[in-house]
Design the sequence.
């Protein structure tokens, strides 16, 4: 009875081959105190056991909690509202924003929801984080909100407190990355350009004004583009909202101790130039020069595949075969590599 009195919070999770991380994410999310999560997990055509694990987890939860409901449907289905946990089957790996938007479309039908938390499946949330978001965002007078994201493997290091975008190159940097969380205050959100897409709360007001995420980036820069459409709605940070994130488990993003894979380098570079062309065309030559220098640096390090990926992404060349082959033939490849 008490759980029904908690404010609802919509949560959109995109899963792709997330069998090794999705259950700890769900366990932590449904252990949240002070809110009633309503979760939509979009599976982007995983070929591992992600779907089966989510189904089994939901069956166990329903057996122990009579208030818990579960449904499974096609991602494009227009019928019905979200259950406590809804598994959306996309049938195609349409990319990050494609999966996020599928979850948001379902959750937006529920008019009791005004906050929508976009959360990566390789995240583990602290028990009080959801409630801190609910309190901080209760007025709805903001665009996007986040808290502090730390590394799962090293919780004594901050992964990001938000990000800034270089005016001239489009390169994104994470504020307070690597700093100790106990000694580092949150930045002034007015100094930020975007918030991490792996731990991001959108207000209904913002979504209704700005629309959903742009889907043709496929990976990287979706949240940067989204934040650029916020208008006069500010970014916001919630004190004490902590999320632990593995980072790059499916796509090989770089970390302080790990070089980004060719796959990640290709999409990151391609989308950086794509973002500049759409939002800062004056800076495209500088962005291309930066990418060329980066490719040269990688070559000197002997990372020839990574350098090739950077150049292909920057100059609109066909993606290297090894990158193309990671995306299933057919609609998924068209969504990933189609013309901008």
Sequence:
């Amino acid at each position: 009875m008490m759980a029904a009195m908690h404010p609802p919070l919509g949560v959109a999770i995109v899963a792709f081959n997330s069998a090794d991380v999705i259950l700890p994410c769900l366990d932590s999310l449904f252990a949240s105190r002070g809110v009633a999560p309503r979760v939509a997990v979009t599976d982007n055509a995983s070929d591992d056991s992600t779907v089966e694990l989510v189904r089994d987890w939901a069956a166990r939860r329903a057996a122990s909690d009579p208030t818990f409901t579960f449904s499974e449907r096609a991602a494009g289905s227009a019928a019905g509202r979200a259950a406590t946990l809804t598994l959306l089957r996309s049938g195609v790996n349409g990319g990050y924003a494609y999966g996020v938007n599928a979850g948001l479309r379902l959750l937006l039908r529920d008019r009791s929801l005004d906050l929508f938390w976009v959360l990566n499946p390789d995240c583990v949330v602290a028990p009080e984080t959801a409630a801190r978001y609910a309190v901080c965002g209760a007025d709805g007078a903001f665009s996007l909100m986040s808290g502090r994201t730390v590394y799962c493997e090293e919780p004594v290091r901050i992964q990001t407190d938000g990000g800034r975008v270089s005016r001239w190159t489009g390169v994104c940097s994470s504020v307070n990355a690597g700093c100790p969380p106990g000694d580092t205050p949150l930045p002034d959100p007015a100094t930020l350009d975007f918030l991490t897409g792996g731990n991001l709360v959108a207000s209904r007001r913002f979504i209704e004004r700005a629309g959903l995420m742009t889907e043709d980036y496929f990976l990287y820069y979706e949240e940067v583009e989204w934040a650029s459409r916020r208008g006069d709605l500010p970014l916001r940070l919630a004190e004490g909202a902590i999320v632990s994130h593995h980072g790059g488990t499916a796509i090989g993003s770089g970390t302080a101790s790990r070089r980004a894979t060719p796959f990640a380098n290709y999409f990151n570079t391609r989308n950086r130039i794509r973002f500049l062309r759409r939002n800062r065309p004056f800076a495209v030559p500088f962005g291309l020069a930066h990418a060329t220098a980066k490719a040269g640096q990688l070559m000197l390090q002997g990372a020839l595949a990574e350098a090739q990926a950077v150049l292909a992404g920057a100059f609109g060349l066909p993606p290297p075969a090894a990158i193309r082959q990671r995306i299933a033939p057919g609609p998924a490849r068209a969504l990933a590599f189609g013309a901008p």
User: Anything to note?
Assistant: Residues 3-245 form a domain with the Spore Coat Polysaccharide Biosynthesis Protein SpsA; Chain A fold (CATH 3.90.550.10). The CA atoms of residues 42 and 88 lie 5 Å apart.
